[in-house]
Amino acid sequence: MPNQIVAVRNGSKPAKRGRRRQKYSRALIHENLELYAIMLPVLLLIFVLCYVPLYGQLIAFQDYTPGAPILSFDGQTQWVGWKYFNQFFTSPYFGRVVSNTLILSFYNIIFGFWIPIVFALLLNELKNLAFKKFVQTASYLPYFISAVVVAGMVLSFISTDGIVNDLRALTGAKRIDFSTIPSYFPMIYTSTNVWKSFGWNSILYLAAISGIDPTLYESAKLDGANRGQMVWYITLPMILPTIAIMLIFQVGSILGSNTDLVLLLYNPAVYDTSDVIGTYIYRYGLLNGQFSFGAAVGMFTSVMNFGLLFIANTISNKLTNYGLW
Amino acid sequence: MLTKAKEMNNKIHEGSKAVDAVIVFLMILVCFITLYPMYYVLILSVSDPLEVAAKSVYFWPKGFYLDSYRVLCTDMKMWNSYLYTVIYVVADTALMLLTCVLCAYPLTSKHLLGKKFVVAFLLIPMYFGGGLIPTYLLMVKLNLYNNIWAIIVPGAFSIWNIILVRTFLNSIPETLREAAFIDGASHFKVLFKIYLPLSKPILAVIAIYTSVGVWNSWFNAMVYLPNENIQPLQLYLRRVLIDQTVNLAQLPAAEVEAAVRKQLSNMQLKYAMIIFTTLPIIFTYPFFQKYFVKGVMIGSLKG
After folding, report:
1. Which residues are CB-contacts of B296 (< 8 A; sequence separation ≥ 6)?
2. Nearest-CA residue of chain A relative to B244?
3. Residue whose C-alpha is closest to residue B67's, from B291, B297, B269
4. Contacts with B153 from chain A: Cβ below 8 Å
5. B180 and which of A310, B21, B170, B185 could share a cystine (Cβ 3.0–4.6 Å)?
């Protein structure tokens, strides 16, 4: 009797008398020990390098000096609450830094988001497969050139004796040093960024397009649709999920994604339009050693980004029924 | 089969010839935009310095002078960076393959207890990061600062890749594993004797992603490696091309060379450096195309 009750409760097969009574047999435990042993080194690595810094974020609320413990109960850590957050919000650079970050990110979305999509759509229309492959391969060459080399090339091209000024001189214009004029920076940065990434980003859309059932196109053709209509009524709706997800990702990193390239392209003369949150944290938080301040700004950024991600995902779910979760 | 697909493809995309021409023209423009900058750098680096100074080089090289490259070959700091970059690439690629496989395999077993927690454990850091400052402080505390492990250890794993490998391993039929169990094999044996050989496709993808990524990386090195002797190539390039703290024209060399070198502009030397360090990538990436595309496709299906 007791065996059957146990069996019904666990939902497993009725246990033999005396033997596999427990849900977790010894064999299962042994197997799990082995599986966890295999995973353990990596899980440990992830814990140390991904989770421990999360705990280190606490210094954003402290007056941290290197060597001081982060968590102690004997008054060694000095908690200062929102002091550094306030310092950031009231800093004279707050407005500049946040607006630059937002502006550069928006430019990136406005120009950089649709270009890979349009490129993928156009590429898809090419009939000569060899030419198509060639264009595709050429389009992601910039992705494989390192950011340092790309920035080096750009800075050289826009310098006073670089090719851009050479071409301008041919038309009689005066040579300008574009790299030191703040108003040119957003354009230089955005075009470099889009140039470097549009080919690679288009791969995803091309993959999505190639997965569309060709019979849809055939029946549309029988109904008399031309190419433009086929793109608008078939291709685009079919890749809408991919587009939505990519857009959500872009929105979710508005405040943080552009540090690398900006760091390579900017210089003090153009901080007015180029200093973004990431570079600000790097200079003040790291180079200047204001660790608590840097951590506070960083935490502000991640929380904001997550909030934006959440909002973008919710909107996408409401509008198109697609989202990250 | 292939011609039928091609036929179908061509039929679908039938349209006005004018539109076809416009599209082809646009695509040629795209090729020009993506290929010309590098090409310009190349022809400038091998051209006669006098022609370069006269600003007459745009579409083909004028003269053929390899002096810039000869000067570069004497740059010991560059060779040193090259060496360390190779070390970082090899170490990190090997470690990445190992960590991916070790972490992904147990996640494919139906018997794993607490699988949901492990997956959550892996997914959370993808949304919440520690930030630059806390990570920096941790690396210093762990003695990973200013030595080669500062690059190798963080680069040895990637949660995204683990998930990629898991998706791939999930497609290997369970029956293989069950048959091995009946024969008395442990999970360890199953992993290394059955799953690993079958994972060659995804491992190739990850190996290439990782190699390219490490080759091109510089930010971590900038933050954690003040010691110039162990800096990777991209960081050295940054000093040359952007910080301008390395003046290539002042490299020590023979007297004869020095006279020639005075004519070479700093720009040509820099361009030669760019070509010299980027050529390996340019020559190899077209052959690995199918791997990248496959990686993107598997990654997008992760769901």
Report:
1. A203, A204, A207
2. A152
3. B269
4. 45, 49
5. B185
- pLDDT tens-digit readout, B157-183: 999 999 999 999 998 998 999 999 998
Report pTM: 0.87
Report the distance separating Cα B297 and Cα B303, nearest Å: 11
CA B73 to chain centre: 24
The residue of B133, B212, B215, B235 whose CB has the most chain A CBs within 10 angstroms, and thus the best one to mutate to test that interface, is: B133
Of B40, B137, B293, the CB nearest to A163: B40
Name beta bridge partners: A62.
A79
Q: Distance (Å) from the C-alpha of residue B266 to the closest C-alpha of chain A? A: 11
**Does the pLDDT at position A7 exceed 50?**
no
User: For the residues of B218-248, what is the DSSP string, one character each?
Assistant: -HHHHHH---GGG--HHHHHHHHHTS--S-G
CA–CA distance, B104 with B88 (Å, rounded to integer): 23
In chain B, which residue's Cα lies nearest the Cα of A264? B242
Distance of residue B256 Cα from the nearest chain A Cα, in angstroms: 28
pLDDT at A258: 77
Paired with A79 in beta bridges are A62
B-interface mutation test, from A121, A126, A149, most B Cβ less than 10 A away: A149
DSSP secondary structure code for residue A283 in this structure: I
CA distances from residue B224 to B114, B136, B137 in whole angstroms, order as listed: 36, 8, 10
